[in-house]
Amino acid sequence: MKNGKTLNNVVKTAIMAMLTALSIVLVCTVHIPLIPSAPFLEYDAADIPVLIGSLLLGPVSGMVILLAVCIIQAITVSAASGWIGFLMHFIASSVLILIPSIIYKRKKTTASLIVGLVIGTLAMTAVMIPLNLVFTGIFLGAGTQAVVQMLIPAIIPFNLLKAGINSAVTFAVFTPIKTILKKYVIK
Which domains does the chain have, with CATH numbers? Predict the structure, then answer.
């Protein structure tokens, strides 16, 4: 039994590392401005592998993957955004990742996956409102009033689109990926 558990841990760690690497590749290569009035708000697909990892391996593993991704991203691609970028990314993605993975862990059905992803998308969007009010004004040096004016036309739609796209893509690819990878994970 000990060899089976050790093998499972090795396979789980390898899957987590692979998903972390894929997330970093996506954050380095995919940057699409979604809101013309705020081109600095760029979509990236980095949360998709993290979501897949949290659904496949559980919320704790998802958070470990996310932390690794946030640290690597903060010291490489997003170094200019410093601790503010790290903190906002970690909190926003934590909400998007934890909610669906907790819901899906309790009942592994397509319906619970959809409900979790929808609630996660809406929760991430809601959490980003106060985070942007506090931190974006500091980061841009523009003050809170400038951020308030950007909420409805740019920030809220951007976060809905980003989380919604990542959730939809995750939903589309999760079942085939789960089918392939579950045979390697010993339960």
Answer: 2-28+41-181 (1.10.1760.20)
